[in-house]
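Q: Convert this sequence to structure tokens.
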Amino acid sequence: MRTFDQLTFNQLGMPGHLQALARFGNKYELSVVKMPRSTMYEVAIFDVVNDVTEGFVQLPGIHPNYGDGPADDVIAGLTPADVEAIMLKLATVTMSPKEVDFTPV
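A:
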């Protein structure tokens, strides 16, 4: 599982705008953005179809107020620990069964 510290941030447009992208399986891409003079991050999750990044996707357990009507695709005001928690959730929902060690009881 990747951690926040393993993200590689690159310049995005204007100076000080930084973005890191991370793929999770063949299903989701996470965009993590840091704005200039901010200590907080914002994320958006995109659907991946046939190895092509498509539109925004909202997921239960990740997006605040999921299913309660219209909501913003971008989740703002996140700490590195918050971003890493989202990364863990995405890794969990995209792992294949062979990556999980089930011990019979």
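Strands lie at 10-11, 18-24, 28-34, 41-49, 52-56, 75-78.
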